[in-house]
Amino acid sequence: MLSKKNKEALFNPLSKDNPVLVQILGICSTLAVTVSLEPAIVMGIAVITVMAFSNVIISLIRNTIPTTIRIIVQLVVVAALVIMVQQFLVAYNYDVSKQLSVFIGLIITNCILMGRLEAFALNNKPWPSFLDGIGNGLGYSIILVIVAFFRELLGSGTIFGFQVIPQWCYDHGYENNGLMILPPMALITVACIIWVHRARNTELQEN
Amino acid sequence: MDKVKPHFMPGGRLEKLQSVYDGMETFLFTPNTTSQTGVHIHDGNDLKRTMITVVVALLPALLFAMYNIGYQHFIAIGQPDAPFMTMFGYGLLALLPCIVVSYAVGLGIEFIAAQIHHKEIQEGFLVTGILIPLIVPINTPLWMVAVATAFAVIFAKEVFGGTGMNIFNVALITRAFLFFAYPSRMSGDAAFVKTDCILGIGEGSVIDTYTGATPLGQLATHVGDTLQLNNVIGEPITTCDAFMGLIAGSPGETSMIAILIGAAILLITGVASWRVMASVFVGGLAMASLAHAFPTPTYAASMLDPISQLCYGGFAFAAVFMATDPVTGARTRTGQYIYGFLIGVFAILIRVYNGGYPEGAMLAILLMNAFAPLIDHCVVSSNIKRRARRATVK
Fold first, then answer.
1. Which residues contact B129 (CB under 8 A, 6 or more apart)?
2. Which residues does chain A have within 8 Å of residue B185's beta carbon, measured at their own beta carbons?
3. A60-64 mean pLDDT
4. Could you tell me the CA-to-CA distances from B264 to B60, B309, B339 in Å, in that order?
5. What confidence tens digit (pLDDT) does each residue in B297-350 have?
6. What are the two backbone dihedrals, phi and then psi, of residue B360, each rounded to the nearest 5 degrees?
7. Which pTM was predicted?
8. Is residue B157 included in any domain, yes or no?
9. Do B246 and B48 form a contact (C-beta atoms < 8 A)?
10. What was the pLDDT predicted at B314?
11. How many domains does chain A fold into?
12. What residues in A contact B155, CB-CB < 8 Å?
């Protein structure tokens, strides 16, 4: 079930081969959906689901897809899955789906997705592809959650909508940092995470 | 100093603090070593002297800022006849904590970064540290100044490689951070005049007609066809007041006279580029004249005549002390004209036509900082092309 290769497919994307930190993919949605934790987590789950199942489906039919039209086939599969996720969200968590607005739909254009389909699912069997999809989705979601945690804490003083910075601080002059709500600060937060990550994994540093 | 030196050399007890020692020694004394080999003919004009010159040029604005903070306070509480020294003392006490915080945080980070990288401490923060209190509204809480300074020094300076390597002006990044992070503290009527008493000086409550609005703040919210700017207690002011500097605003920016003295010092010593400075004013005048040619009540600032446009707000201060920053600006001569002109144009453009930002100088300079390398690149490559053509014609 979990041979060495499969383990690598599942766990490498969490840190050493993280799609956001190392490959710098999927930055756009990372900036857009991380203002607070709840939409970030929902977005993460949506991406994990779409990525895992599109990887499996493409892997299953990988030998029958003509190479000349493979991108179109991948897009059709991904689009179908994204629409399913979107409808599911609208049905069961309408508020969050409104917050995420177009970004659920834009999972279709998420570079991580197409990258994994091209680089992994087209050449591997369904089970490793499934694990690879889960791993990359998780790697993306972890970063989303870390960024959203800091942005929500410093930008709104809340975690999951609950006030965590005590009123006492506000009474004594503390104020929420409005810049944290704006996308540029998400970019700087990601940069800080990359900074820490490279400092801990010296083999990733470029000269 | 020499007695403790061995401790700081490699192998000594305090080896880790070598750059601190080195920084203090060269700051206080002239190094007693000379070059042993090769030809070394150069001016004694090093980074320290350049930086100190800029600080000296900032002194008139700084001293005037202290007086004006006091003056604004005392007219706000209805005592315009308070003695000069009381006003000055009040301003000194109001501004000093901000200067101390800005230097402590900024230099602290610079020292730590120098220790980590085993480099000498550079003097770049000397100017930045005095610019920050001068461009931040007087009522900004000190912890916000500290956070913003730390952010700017780390993310706008140290990550790019320290002094001389930064892409954006560090003092302006500090202000921009505050502006976007804590907008309520950075604009509006409560930001620019200190009304509470400090250490028993300036006791009293504000009088009824007090508004606290700066001239540009009034322009941003102005309604109607006729334009009359007022001071903080609602009395009319003229461009002459703005030239003198007895108006509300960020501490350093109000007095055109003090800024012009600083500009003279910078130009006579050759520290700042007159090309940049002049072209910023030309650009500002051009855009202000264009705006004034089509005055409309929708954009109240377009009803100001071009000269007043340059006197109000932070335009002159930014033009003299921040557009001329040699690190972040354009370096080719032609490039400097283009760079300065566009700063002037954008500053007035943002001020007049963007209601969200009462003052545009900060954003204009940051924007052109980003474009300065591109301008230089175009100038250099067109120069190369022109010379290549001349060479091949023969």
1. B99, B102, B103, B106, B107
2. 175
3. 89
4. 11, 21, 21
5. 777 777 788 888 888 888 888 889 888 888 888 888 899 999 999 999 999 998
6. -110, -5
7. 0.85
8. yes
9. no
10. 84
11. 1
12. 188
Residue B5 has pLDDT above 70, yes or no: no
**B41 pLDDT higher than 70:** no
Which of B215, B237, B130 lies closest to B174, judged by CA? Answer: B130
Amino acid in position B305: D
Interchain CB distance below 8 Å, A175 and B182: yes
A188 CB neighbours in chain B (<8 A) are 155
B388 contacts chain A (CB < 8 A): no
Whether A4 maps to a domain, the answer reads no
ipTM metric: 0.83
Q: Flag whether residue B180 sits within 8 Å of chain A, measured between CB atoms.
A: yes
Which residues in chain B have Cβ-Cβ distances shorter than 8 Å to A182?
180
| B88-B94-B96 Cα angle (round to 5) | 95
Has residue B54 been placed in a domain?
A: yes
List the Cα angle B48/B54/B58 in 5-degree steps.
140
Kindly report, residue by residue over B108-158, the tens digit of the pLDDT. Answer: 988 888 888 777 777 778 888 899 999 988 888 889 999 999 999 999 888
Provide the domain limits for residue A150: 12-201
CB atoms near residue A98 (< 10 Å): 11
Q: Which residues are bridge partners to B296 per DSSP?
A: B299
A72 interfacial to chain B (CB closer than 8 Å): no
Residue A177 distance to chain B (closest CA, Å) = 5
> How big is the A-B interface in CB pairs under 8 Å?
20
Confirm whether A58 is domain-assigned. Answer: yes
Contact B182 A178 (CB under 8 A): yes
How many Å lie between the alpha carbon of A178 and the closest alpha carbon of chain B?
4
- What is the span of the domain harbouring residue B229? 48-384
Total tally of structural domains belonging to chain B: 1
Is A175 near chain B, with CB under 8 Å? yes
The answer as to whether A206 is a domain residue is no
User: Is B355 at the interface with chain A, CB within 8 A?
Assistant: no
Q: Is any Cβ of chain A less than 8 angstroms from the Cβ of B97?
A: no
Q: Are A23 and A17 in contact (CB under 8 A)?
A: yes
pLDDT tens digit sequence for A146-162: 999 999 998 888 888 88
The strand ranges marked E within chain A are 158-159, 162-163
Asked if residue B85 has pLDDT above 70, the reply is yes
Best probe of the A interface among B116, B182, B184, B196, by most A CBs < 10 A, is B182
Task: Answer whether residue B11 is part of any domain.
Answer: no
> Which range is least confidently modeled, B230-234, B313-317, B387-391?
B230-234
Cβ atoms of B370 and B330 closer than 8 Å = no
Does residue B169 lie in a domain region? yes
Is the CB of residue B188 less than 8 Å away from at least one CB of chain A?
no
In a domain, A7, yes or no: no
Residue of B nearest to A172 (CA): B141
Q: How many CA atoms lie within 13 A of A33 on its CB side?
A: 32
Does A178 contact B at CB distance below 8 Å? yes
